[in-house]
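Bench notes, afternoon.
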Amino acid sequence: MTGDYPKKYFTLTNLQWISFHAVMVMNTITLTDMSSTPPELKFTTLEEIDEVYYTLQKAFLSGKTKPIAFRKVQILQLAYLLKDNYDRFKEAFAIDLGRPPLEASFLELDSTIADCKIAYDRVEKWARTEKAPFSINFFAFRPVIRKEPKGIVLSISPFNYPVWLALGPIIGAIAAGNCVVLKPSELSPAISGLIAELIPKYMDSDVIRVVLGAIPETSKLLEYQWGHVLYTGNGRVARIIGVATAKTLSPTSLELGGKSPVVIDPRCDLKTAARRIMWGKCVNAGQTCIAPDYVLIPRSAEDALVKALKDAHDEFYPSGAISTKDICHIINTAHFHRIKNLLDNTSGTVAFGGQTDESRKFIAPTVVRGVKDGDSLMSEELFGPILPIMPVDNIDAAIAYINAHDHPLALYCFSQDAAFKNKVFDNTQSGSAVANDVLVQCAVDGLPFGGIGPSGSGYHTRKFSFDLFTHLRASLDSPGLIDSILGGRFPPYTAKSEAFLKSSLGSKLPPRPRLSVAGGANGYVLSKKSNTKWMLFLVGLAIVGVGYTRAADINEWARWLKGLIKG
């Protein structure tokens, strides 16, 4: 993603700020670049950022955030912040993104309120100290895993889902007992300004603060040591974030993106597949990190897919996409021109769509067929309503193409054939693997949201957000009598103490595996203990069976057992 930067940043002497601009893609924009006039954001001063950090540090050290009751109050207040100001948020979505009211409600407001409810109901269970797995050697130590907050955490959120990706992760951070600094995107000033206005009114300012700003303010934030940093955005800025947080040894998670492919089995229900793919590409104007980015389909089925996509498009927008109010606009002119430039330079054929309106920052949903590797549309994550179709020879070619590129944040496969789906998923890597739908994995309670490799690291949403911002602290309490058992750990060392300590650790290995080639085990290997268990079970089962059928004939049992042992 790219953005416009205020010209004043070119005059700054701070090389780190200039490097941010050179790499581009920071969530920054001049506030005049909006079709509707948003409220002007008042950026947090660098001096105020100092005060924010040290206020939160003092509050955390006081233990204020640790009681579960306190955490639940803050979570519930966050839910009511959204509920009480529901219409104001919908208006802000319309200003920043031209977001249809239904998308604002379904994709962000209601889902974030639901996340608050889940955390409120489950935080006691999430935070409960866990007993370590039982060990005959160490149970007397009463080993446990304590769930403790990491401290002061920082979340840097993007413009495209400015409520869910801003507030969703910090629900888990608050539930875990942390103090939080939220740096929302200045690309969505109406939403970010509203969040900054409301959080101090609803929540404890000693434990959560919002910092508004762009490159200088973000650079300042990255100078501090954090209990954890979560950055949601793109890979180029993520590299800068990673370098900065490495200097302070601040643990960092990255939720990025990439080109999420769709692999289509031509035997699938193409009508259903096309409707779901088209929806995933049109919702939020394709500005979704897990949106289907391109389609891989056998050449023989390309025509049928294009027709099904056109039918779905016409069903969604019967009066035409250019006149509908059900599609967002592109976030700013820089992104508009980036996407349009990719479309203008494609060697593929526009099957339908392609209309643009710079004054509205609008790009119609567009399907481009016959796209080849190396095309402009395959050069980067599109992050817009353009869907390239790349015909391939077969499923193996599709898998090879996916594996030749960065691991995506999501991979979609449409097929009713379990073998087809398994082949795609078993031979690729991605943040998520979804069959026969798109985007919905984010809404499913119990599933993590995160990438792998270039598409990100770490997981969040609901319980996974709690885990992300939680330190698992190993703890035990060693009784005095242990020295009568483990006294051999103390000098002077003897052969007897060495033998005893070795036996106490359970380091005896199962039989060595049979090798067919150097370093390769030939088949499954069972330990002697496992063989013994199975033999006893089978013998017992056989005895019961023989006893039942032979009317408890002891002689018959004896003959059967004798034969079993000899055989």
